[in-house]
Amino acid sequence: KNQVEQSPQSLIILEGKNCTLQCNYTVSPFSNLRWYKQDTGRGPVSLTIMTFSENTKSNGRYTATLDADTKQSSLHITASQLSDSASYICVVSRRSNDYKLSFGAGTTVTVRA
Amino acid sequence: DVKVTQSSRYLVKRTGEKVFLECVQDMDHENMFWYRQDPGLGLRLIYFSYDVKMKEKGDIPEGYSVSREKKERFSLILESASTNQTSMYLCASGGDYPYNEQFFGPGTRLTVL
């Protein structure tokens, strides 16, 4: 069973609107959570990283939140643009040195004019 | 900026062929990784390497092998390609503790006919 679950699987929004993506995880012990953006046909690129003690992190119009008690994170996109059309992947790292990451299946966001 | 390059963006091979996918990174990272990405499944780790000539199996190593003769180069080998190996293959480097950030290449879309 995947230790990182994302919802929704996909969504369509109009340009200029906001949206929120969800990530629930069971990875333990927790080290950090990262949101990646993956454009079609490209490799993922890191947007934000949050450790246990952080509950919010922004990168431009992207704001990520983390509730380590409930093991939930969200990524909020404000005033969406056509360039936000991509897959957004939640990635959780364990507090260990085995290099392995746990990946969500991703949420595909389509922004329409 | 970290740069991870992959030898091909698109490959089409026939069942039974030997396939080489090459990855090069320019940031002197010790760790390198090969993943495959399939719709709805997220990224799955095939193999990783933590030093030259050192490798470890990931979650789905069957049907694959790897080679790391130089620090900057990590190759994925499909000894006898099969149709169920049609996928997007992503190489990454980095993963240093504690943040474990991995930097991804652009991916190779492999189709096995």
Q: What is the chains' assembly state?
A: heterodimer
Topology of chain A as a string of helices (H) and strands (E) = EEEEEEEEEEE
Continuous helix count of chain B: 0
Query: Quick one: biggest sheet of chain A?
Result: 6 strands, mixed
Individual helix count of chain A: 0
Mean pLDDT of chain B: 93
Helix content of chain B: under 10%
Number of strands of chain A: 11
Produce a short descriptive summary:
Chain A has 113 residues and is mainly β.
Structure write-up:
The complex is a heterodimer of chains A (113) and B (113). The N and C termini of chain A lie far apart (37 Å). Chain A has 113 residues and is mostly beta strands. Helix content of chain A is 0%, strand content 58%. With 113 residues, chain B is an all-beta fold. Helices cover 0% and strands 56% of the residues of chain B. Chain B has no helices and 11 strands. Chain B has strands at residues 4-6, 10-13, 19-25, 32-38, 42-51, 54-57, 65-70, 73-78, 87-94, 102-104, 108-112. In chain B, strands 2, 4, 5, 6, 9, 10 and 11 form a 7-stranded mixed sheet that branches. Chain B has a 4-stranded antiparallel sheet with strand order 1-3-8-7, with no helix packed on it. In chain B, a hairpin with a 2-residue loop joins β5 and β6. Chain B starts with a strand and ends with a strand. At the A-B interface, β4 and β5 of A face β5 of B.
